């Protein structure tokens, strides 16, 4: 069974610039989770997506993260400092929407953008919340431009 401390240590490795080692450690954590470890799988897939170099693999991890998220109870992410799971939703939708747009899947990108915007009220007025809101605003502009072109 994977412990949260293992997951956060692997994330720290990846965020400190050791992408390949971080990815390896996150995959090891993923392999030791089960289909019922929704919170851990959500977080692992969320970070694994960011470490992919292949767009299709990135989107697949983002889809896994969002699928797992829908089965996470509100307090299950507390061990990693997320007091309410709802605060993770805007980021998950942002990342998946961005991936879909890069794949040319404008309609799916719009769906994810709309879900991200709808859930953005859960974000705090802090650095993380502002970062995600800026990301959603940028995605909104890119999706609107793609819809106009299409």
Write a brief caption for the model.
The protein has 150 residues and is mainly α. It is built from seven helices and no strands.
Please give a structural write-up:
The chain is an all-alpha fold. It folds into two domains: 1-72; 84-150. It contains seven helices and no strands. It has helices spanning 4-15, 19-31, 38-50, 55-69, 89-102, 106-119, 127-149. The radius of gyration is 15 Å and the shape is globular. It starts with a helix and ends with a helix.
Helix/sheet category? mainly alpha
| Global shape | globular
Residue runs with pLDDT of under 50 for 5 or more positions: none
- What's the helix count? 7
Radius of gyration, whole Å:
15 Å
What are its keywords?
69% helix; 7 helices; mainly alpha; 2 domains; 150 residues
Write the layout of secondary structure elements.
Layout: H1 4-15, H2 19-31, H3 38-50, H4 55-69, H5 89-102, H6 106-119, H7 127-149
Helix pairs in contact: 1-2, 2-3, 3-4, 4-5, 5-6, 5-7, 6-7
